[in-house]
Write a structure and sequence with these properties.
Length: about 110
């Protein structure tokens, strides 16, 4: 069996050679886990709470974007398809920013 370790972020068992966790995307180089550590991860309530808060913030931001599209469309009497086309680049930038934040471990 190849050397494995436990991800400190999600508690999943992963290959010791990986730089990022294949389950949650956490940066494994910043973690101080032994390559042969097979003990289960003790629940870190703070990291779980932070993950839930991040997901909640992402959902809130998505809802704000959707509501903004609808309000602009109705207020300016512009077909919603045109407003959506305007917000596609905004959504792409938002997704890329979120991914970069996740990779950096912020």
């Amino acid at each position: 069996m190849p050397n494995t370790k436990i991800c400190n972020s999600c508690g999943q068992q992963i290959n010791a050679e990986h730089v990022f966790c294949i389950h949650c995307g956490a940066n494994l180089e910043k973690q101080n886990s032994s390559p042969t550590d097979h003990s289960p991860l003790q629940g870190d309530k703070n990291s779980d709470k932070t993950t839930v808060e991040n997901k909640s913030n992402n959902l809130n931001a998505l809802l704000v974007i959707i509501l903004t599209v609808i309000v602009i469309s109705l207020t300016l009497r512009i077909p919603i398809q045109r407003v959506i086309l305007f917000f596609i680049p905004v959504a792409v930038v938002w997704v890329v920013h979120s991914l970069l934040k996740k990779i950096e471990g912020s």
